[in-house]
């Protein structure tokens, strides 16, 4: 009995020792494999490769500073991974080869399932397949890849939206086109997905949220939603045109970007409105698909969406351009094709108190072509007015829309072709947002001067409106300085100036408005010339001669500021102006601001008159010659001739 037990014990010890020997052999093999691949990575200098640093979102601007744009610590395997790509490479290789489990939302995954684009690149560079190294199964990743079968990617530009600080410079996102093949032969555009990078703003109502966006307080994250949701938001709710730029990408590049999107899901970056924004981050994502792409390194302290779009176009990455008009643009396209009598019919229908059966009965008296044109235009107008967002909410035109659609369904007349209409100009045709100007001038007070002008963004009324709206101006950090013979003077700084001049048109009567936060050395203030101020006006803009873009605007409002020496001032104000194209590339803009107010500390009434007339000749793309005449009270005139360069 004793002998039997001793034999069993010896057998058990032998088995355990055998397993330990095998485990030690495997452990030694694993250690050798890790050492081999780490040495191979060092020999290939993988940590210095562009793709590796782009996979980590390292910033290539400013000479290539070694710091990732990703602020989320979970994105890195090494504690020093955000600043040291070599450390992150070593930690990543060890994790992939040792298959150290990674916890995400209470579940554990193999690291190659969490960072699949890193794994795909390293497997190719280090030859994992040739070494017999295989990645473990990733059920959730495979499920995502089965869904995300994309055959094309388009960079989409959503037009400028002045009612939102985050969108006034435009917005870009990716449209991910579903692949068309034997398994999904039908192409449903609206069922495509979009990839959007945006700030997660938790205090939208706060007056400080634009300022927080400037300094990176908010987190920026990627999100994927169906395309039709964005069409509803931009095309219908906000009346913004969409421009789609299909990119020249191979299927391999597209598939790699899809892996990147999985890897970035839930990861946050610091979001800065000026540089690390929707537009710039999408360019960094594109760059990871091809080491030869150089899209971001030339951007400096800011990246405006329209500039990033021009970069993609200039790099010859665009295959095709598609225009998707907003509901307002579609209405204008149809309305402008109508005859005078057809316009009168529409105006009569919309002004009638009874919009029921009798309205549709009136249409029956006209020929089928007129009925079709009127019905199609009315539907577009109603969609614009009611925003076509909440289908359960009954709007003032809901009954009319339903009856018109019923009657239109009985009419076989084809809709009028509006494909040639463009509610906005192609954004890539516009000038770059940064403006540098050098000029010579003369002042009746201080005589000759050199004029220095710099503006990071975006567009003023005097500039060529190609690529921009003819009804808006946005000056951001616009600085105008003058060097006189014996002194230097900062003439004006517009910290943010927005002028929205939506034209008065039939059936559409928008308000024009102007906001300006600025510093100015106002020649007309006899007591104290230097002032910081904020003013705003509301009014109307009237398009007088469409062919020459001649319009007149009149706005009234108020301003408040503080004089450099003598205290606070308050004043009502009037802004009057006109703009027109005298010929191709030659534009005239003239405006006048009159203020009459009170200096509170001195109890002193004052009045001021600022008059400006600018005549701008576009020399060629990116350069302008501009003459500027300014007048202030007390007969103080200045004349400036400057050469402007957009960059």
Account of the protein in words:
30% of the residues lie in helices and 33% in strands. With 647 residues, the chain is of the alpha+beta class. The chain folds into five domains: 1-26; 31-137, no CATH class; 148-324, no CATH class; 327-408, no CATH class; 430-646, Porin (Beta Barrel). A twelve-stranded antiparallel β-barrel has the order 10-11-13-14-16-17-18-19-20-21-22-23. Strands 8-6-5-4-3-7-9 form a seven-stranded antiparallel β-sheet. β17 (530-545) and β18 (550-563) form a beta hairpin. α10 (278-287) packs parallel to α11 (305-314), α13 crosses α15 (368-386) and α15 (368-386) runs antiparallel to α16 (398-409). Residues 1-26 have low confidence and may be disordered.
Briefly characterize the structure.
With 647 residues, the chain is an alpha+beta fold. The protein is 30% helix and 33% strand. It contains 16 helices and 23 strands.
Question: CATH homologous superfamily name of the largest domain?
Answer: monomeric porin ompg
**Cα-atom Rg, whole angstroms?**
32 Å
The major pleated sheet works out as: 12 strands, antiparallel, barrel
What's the CATH first level of the largest domain?
Mainly Beta
CATH architecture of the largest domain: Beta Barrel
Proportion of β residues?
25-35%
Oligomeric state of the chains present here? single chain
Helix and strand content put the structural class at alpha+beta
What number is the mean pLDDT? 84
In total, the number of domains comes to 5
What is the 3D shape?
A: globular
Total number of helices: 16
Biggest sheet, spatial arrangement of strands = 10-11-13-14-16-17-18-19-20-21-22-23
Query: What percent of residues adopt helix (DSSP H or I)?
Result: 25-40%
Count the E strands: 23
